[in-house]
User: Fold this.
Amino acid sequence: MILTRLFPALIVFSGAYFLVAYQADDSVRKLVSTLTLDEKIGQMTQPDQMFLKSIDDIDKYHLGSLLSGGDSDPKSGNDLQSWTTLYDRYQTRALATKRRIPLLYGIDAVHGHNNVLGATIFPQNIGLGCTRNPELVEKIGRVTAEEVRATGINWAFAPCIAVPQDVRWGRTYEGFSESPDVVKILGEAAVRGLQWGGLSNPKAVLACAKHFAGDGGTALGTGQLKKDGTRFPFDQGDTQVDEPTFRKVHLAGYPPAIRAGVGSIMPSYSSWNGVKVSASKRLMTDILKQELGFQGFLISDYAALNQLPGTYKQQIETSINAGMDMVMVPEHYQEFFEKLKENVEEGKVAMSRIDDAVTRILRVKYAMGMLDPKRSQLADRSLQKSFGSTEHRAVARDAVRQSIVLLKNDNKTLPLAKTLPRIHVAGKSANDIGNQCGGWTITWQGKSGNTIEGTTILAGIKKATAASGGQVTYSLDGAGAAGASVGVVVVGETPYAEMLGDRTDLNLAPEDVAAISAVKAAKIPVVVILVSGRPMMIDNVLGNADAFVAAWLPGTEGDGVADVLFGDYKPTGKLSFTWPKRFAFGYGLTY
Ligand code: GLC
Assistant:
């Protein structure tokens, strides 16, 4: 990257939004030179807000960032005002410190502002991958940014640009596709959407491409250790591939994301050929920062340093020297602060490394207008009028329509006529908004049931046929289907996130198989809709289905499913993952 040192203008015109001309960098470097070591370390320290011993620790430890990890919620609840009050309270405290450097507040807004009641919840990335539509993904990023900013929060830990290679991995649905070519295009679009108009736009948020790199390529049996000494099958495991494969598949999404100006990148818990990414100077510095020219900052994953070899002090030394810039501690931030300071004072971590990390962090804050004393850093509550709005939900409904993949349609069973005398709907996910949304929704793991405002698939079917005078009946197990014109059975997975989604058995649950059989026994056409975070083993039910639809995890706008069922939208979705033993990548029927 010697070129960009000699020709700073190259950086500015590399299309990376947040990179400012050197004179701005000069002001950042000047600011860094005035900071004490404590103030520098504070910028590199990110506690989870739920572990703050006192709000005054923001001052005492000169904190530059906080996060809300999964389930780290306002005590008063997950409503819009509680989140906004939480953010404003912490930011106000930060602005009352000597340096007045505002906090970057990070949250997993990975399919909308998914921690907040009333938010627009979009299809998870696996469904967006089936749209192959970067303009749509960019628009989703922009709407998500506006809803996140409505709470004041300024940093989304998204997009996930994993390239999942084995659908048994619990985070498959967070990936757009098994294809690096699809991930490149949609990952770049997601960054452009979240950081729309450039980082200086107060309605944009800082994006975070994750998890660098190879998170989706781990080998079976190498996952994170459990308390009993056994391992999860995949999550946080070891990606055992040669360098050409690692570069072609798992690094693919990063150059486009950097080109789009992504301001932060999150190194992965996982390893490459036995070396933890979060300890790898080759990966984080030589390849990502030097070869690929990433000028923003690296944020560790949640307590990822604790998984490295050695004592905590050695783990910190290793990871910071390898290129980690900010550490998502998240709990023992006082100890992190002290141990990093000791490492510097003992010469184990050079001050130049500290200065580089802090310069990267403050360069991003500068680009975001966070060092501009004239700019308010508190929530812009005027954005709240469009939070979860009809317009936002229309974008999500369109995404649902475009994400649906038609896998089977014998005898032109679909599209259904809205005038059918009776449609019988069955299955555990027909009337379950929690199942529709999946993990990372209100809670970390997500939950079945009525967890957030939205339209279930059943409600969407009822709305679509309301004017026709036809009847829509429902039973969980398929009973009562006899005599109906058609049966629609909605089955699949209940919510999960991360390692708790690792499965070696992808068969449908017995109650799903039974519900399909019960409707089939009624001797009427059967439409099966699969609501899942990945392809599942459907050999034992496909024969009972006249039509089969993959709806993935569509989010709150279940109307989009009805739009396809009734032909108001002809299915265009194409598989973003190979369907094991069944359908090839790219497969998808239409009417
Ligand atoms: C989690 C995930 C990461 C998330 C972070 C903060 O463990 O690995 O995707 O952004 O912690 O919640």
